[in-house]
Design brief:
This protein has 602 residues and is an alpha+beta fold. Helix content is 24%, strand content 18%. It contains 15 helices and 21 strands.
């Protein structure tokens, strides 16, 4: 087994796979270390996919949280086969009441492909203004609900512009495999590699009518699901509406039509002699010399044996929380590494997610929402400067409908009365009012009738929002676990209220044919939830932001840690602001950009 590579990449998701794909094709030797297993599609196994269906309903035995000191100690949970066991490797967050709770939030998926295996596949670009929010807010923008002037003080322009990243957006859209439409987007594109979208689910016509009635220019939501043959990855598509199922987008896709990074970017190079993928490997720490060169990557293999490898370049792309945690754990092992990575006390600071939420209504009629992809329609009407300034906002965002939400009774149950996060659900079990006829009436009213419209928007960056190592909680290897400490800024709350109202208006005007009086039974921002401090939509961003000033950032414009020669961080941790849309495509595009930089070094 080889121990020396041109590049060692830790993580196989959106931040790592584009680099691996690019460098392997260029003839460089690349090792990818992945903490989770490899799950193959039906084409790859010649039989059944390795994916199970327990992402839909965790079918394992009931377990109890046994994390010492956690306020939710003793609560029940169920493990999915794509996430770590909560007792083995929890994240801890500080809740509204100041108490610590164990959670799986922040683990999008522990599997080859990372979060791209299970995400909804919404693949929006950020807007040009998302890259320059400091400049945008420096010229007298009249903000509401920013009493301490935090926006002007904390907003940062990215060290790259939209125009600089645009060719890599285009490359990602071509190589990943995305369907959608361009017309009416506010994000300019030099080339159009979108595949033709499938016909929208009939329930989405209410969103279409609502957006039109309000003058919101709409387009088909870009989704990382192939609807045609995809030559770059060698995937074939059988035609028709074969992929039109909520299972493709919300869960591990057994057919390989969802463009996760395994099927789109890694599998196409997996048989090359200069590429190696090692699964079920947990990186414990890095080593560096006095010149700032990372010399070794130490990890435990699937059998728990301690091993080490070295690379001319080392890329950390574990998803932001775990990347920050790995760098902090390494700093505990090495004074030299500590001195370099913590040269300005910013590592872990400015942790970001998104302001998100939306509105929901029960529409007239009943629809089979399982015959759909995740979203049909999107609009950038709330991303433009006029909307932002007229509402006293610091930034804009994207709005789109969630077509496949609650597409089966069991997924309706998962979201009913949820009190904590991910696989910890109260569901119907603890709602004692839903028995007998009442349960039947609830299903009759809600199944196949609910329609939600969601938003994603920029969160104000705050230094106090951070990832630390928890002082007492440990994982199964005895290492400190990640500690999520965050709050919602007053402007975040105001922004979420504004965007939630826009989502509600779409449903009000769509439900009654443009009159604007259709009832909306729920709207709001995530900050209103009981667990709103932890809810992060699995958009794990910030904590190691890049920039042009080494005193104000952790990484340089090419995502290299300032005081290191060969250490790069390319997952969402690099972002200084969270952007006004889902982040995966931007992470992929930036990784392709960094890959070109690395080629110039190797």
């Amino acid at each position: 087994m080889a121990n020396d590579f041109d590049v060692v990449i830790i993580g196989s998701g959106a931040g790592g796979a584009p680099i691996a794909n690019t460098l392997v094709k260029a003839g460089k030797s690349v090792l990818v270390l992945e903490k989770g297993p490899l799950y193959r599609t039906q084409d790859q196994t010649g039989g059944l996919s390795d994916f199970k269906r327990d992402e839909l309903l965790a079918t394992g035995a009931e377990k109890r949280i046994r994390v010492d000191g956690a306020a939710n100690y003793g609560e029940s949970y169920y493990s999915s086969h794509v996430e770590p066991d909560l007792n083995d490797e929890p994240h801890i967050y500080r809740s509204f009441d100041g108490r610590d709770r164990a959670t799986l939030e922040g683990y999008t998926a522990q599997v080859v492909g990372g979060g791209t295996q299970l995400y909804g596949a919404v693949s929006l670009r950020f807007s040009p203004d998302d890259f320059r929010l400091a400049s945008f807010n420096s010229n007298g923008n009249s903000l509401r609900n920013d009493p301490n002037g935090d926006v002007k003080r904390e907003a940062r322009d990215w060290p790259i512009t939209y125009d600089e990243l645009e060719p890599y957006y285009t490359k990602a859209e071509q190589l990943v495999g995305i369907n959608g439409t361009r017309q009416n987007q506010l994000k300019p594109a030099s080339r159009d590699f979108y595949m033709k979208p499938l016909e929208p689910n009939p329930i989405s016509r209410f969103v279409e009518m609502g957006m039109d009635a309000l003058g919101m220019k709409r387009y088909r939501t870009p989704l990382a699901v192939i609807t045609e043959d995809h030559p770059p990855s060698g995937r074939t598509y059988p035609g028709g509406d074969a992929a039109k199922t909520g299972f493709v987008n919300r869960y591990g896709c057994p057919m390989g039509w969802k463009s996760n990074t395994w099927v789109a970017l890694l599998a196409p190079v997996s048989d090359r002699p200069n590429f190696e993928l090692r699964t079920n490997c947990t990186v414990t720490h890095l080593e560096c010399d006095n010149s700032g060169k990372v010399t070794k990557v130490r990890y435990r293999d699937a059998a728990g044996q301690a091993r080490e490898v070295s690379g001319g370049i080392v890329v950390v792309a574990c998803s932001a929380i775990e990347s920050v945690r790995l760098l902090k754990l390494t700093a505990l092992e090495s004074a030299e590494f500590d001195r370099r990575i913590n040269q300005n006390d910013l590592l872990g600071k400015y942790f970001l997610t998104h302001c998100f939420g939306g509105a929901e209504a029960i529409m007239p009629g009943r629809y089979d929402k399982s015959i759909s992809l995740d979203s049909d329609w999107a609009t950038d009407s709330c991303a433009g400067a006029d909307f932002i300034r007229s509402n006293g906002l610091w930034a804009g965002g994207a709005i789109y409908n969630n077509t496949s939400d609650q597409c089966l009774p069991v997924s309706l149950a998962r979201t009913h009365g949820s009190q904590d996060i991910d696989t910890i659900w109260k569901s119907f079990v603890e709602d004692t009012s839903l028995t007998g006829e009442r349960l039947a009436s609830f299903l009759d009213e809600n199944f196949g009738t609910r329609l939600s419209v969601s938003f994603m928007a920029n969160q104000v960056p705050l230094k106090t929002n951070r990832i630390e190592l928890h002082p007492t909680a440990r994982d199964k290897w005895g290492r400190s676990v990640a500690y999520i400490i965050k709050e919602w800024h007053p402007h975040d709350r105001y922004l979420m209220d504004v965007f939630a109202e826009q989502c509600a208006r779409i449903l009000r005007f769509g439900g009654d044919g443009g009159k604007g009086n259709y009832p909306v039974f729920e709207k709001g921002g995530v900050y209103q939830a009981e667990n709103g401090l932890a809810r992060i939509a699995n958009h794990i961003l910030g904590g190691a932001r890049f920039g042009k000033d080494r005193n104000d950032s952790v990484l340089d414009p090419n995502c290299r840690a300032w005081e290191f020669d060969n250490l790069y961080v390319t997952d969402g941790a690099f972002m200084p602001t969270s952007g006004g849309a889902n982040p995966t495509l931007t992470i992929q595009a930036n990784s392709f950009r960094v890959a070109d930089h690395l080629l110039s070094r190797l």
